[in-house]
Amino acid sequence: MAQAVLPAVRALTPEMVALRQRLHAHPELAYEEFATSDQVAACLQDWGYEVHRGLAGTGVVGLLRRGDGPRRIALRADMDALPIQEATGLPYASRIPGRMHACGHDGHTAALLTAARVLADEGGFDGTLQLIFQPAEESLGGARRMVEEGLFERFPCDAVFGLHNMPGFPVGHIGLRAGAFMPSSDTVHIIVHGRGGHGAAPHDSADPVVAAAHIVLALQTVVSRNTDPRDMAVVSIGAIHGGDAPNVIPDRVELKATVRALRPEVRQRLRERITELAEAQARTLGVRAEVIYHWRYPVLVNDAHWTGEVRRIATGWLGADHVMPDMAPLTGSEDFAFLLEQRPGCYFIVGNGLIGAYSQGGCMIHNPGYDFNDAVLPVAASFWVRLVREVMGGPARP
Ligand SMILES: [Zn+2]
Ligand SMILES: [Zn+2]
């Protein structure tokens, strides 16, 4: 792996690690990435980027032109942390109670910034490089807001690229897949409206508890009976709330579910069936189901051409044994899907190592013991530099 790291990146690695750990110690939640955004913008400005701020609040876009070529590509990093109490015990652990970089966005930001610096110092490409530092990747759709606020109209580009670290996958390895790579993620809120009463007189009430139980069971048939067995689909009910006392039938019960699919058609079908089943079950029991459906993140679809390019560059650089060219789809969802709805491109995985930092026991992202592996930084930064140079060709390094 060592030979894969570019010399300029290697020289900047101590600084990159220090930056990553500084970001880690000062995590900021979605749309509150004020200090992080300031720091990103100041660095880009220093290195000669044209810096634009304010998209989606704390978003930063940096533009760097070299030569007069027409090609324009965008690279994206996410900046937000999670509402988790850190439990790593690391010297640079979060200084802010209840907030933690538990998804490695500190690492994504540090790696892209370092690539930005090398590309500004050395060039080696011909065209316009566009760097997108987005807020609120976790749940709140910072990428969607940037798109809605005119990201691609103001800063047009031919293709957009993003990466994410993955614990359990070795450092120096890259994984990707053309087509649908990550499922959509939608949320359903079902409110069962009944008529409360005395638990000893159920005939004088309309019981939303029994109806909610029927709805929970009926929804299990959506995936098993209404979707093609070859299609991935998930309906999981994660919350059910209603009532307080054993002898009181409540007025209402609320259910919350997460719904995922890898094809837009399946996503639509799930919505239809969930709504129909919940309403019909409630009706047969004399209550009413109010179904509130939140379309959240769409299916993340990697473009075939650009995925082929990333695959080719990664294989040429790291060797075929370090690239998983046709990974199985992941089950998590990604805000980057909104960018890929607008522009073709590729989202790929970089290994975060087989052993996590948590007392060598290893753990996944979103775990209080997780830490981004600093050994990944030079790999990710080098890959960004190589990708830009390969895709936008141009003059060799001076
Ligand atoms: Zn996350
Ligand atoms: Zn993440």
TrEMBL record:
Transmembrane segments: none annotated. Keywords: Hydrolase. Gene3D superfamilies: 3.30.70.360, Zn peptidases. Residues 186-282 form the Peptidase M20 dimerisation domain. Pfam families: M20_dimer, Peptidase_M20. This is M20 aminoacylase family protein. It comes from Pseudaquabacterium rugosum. The lineage of its organism: Bacteria, Pseudomonadati, Pseudomonadota, Betaproteobacteria, Burkholderiales.
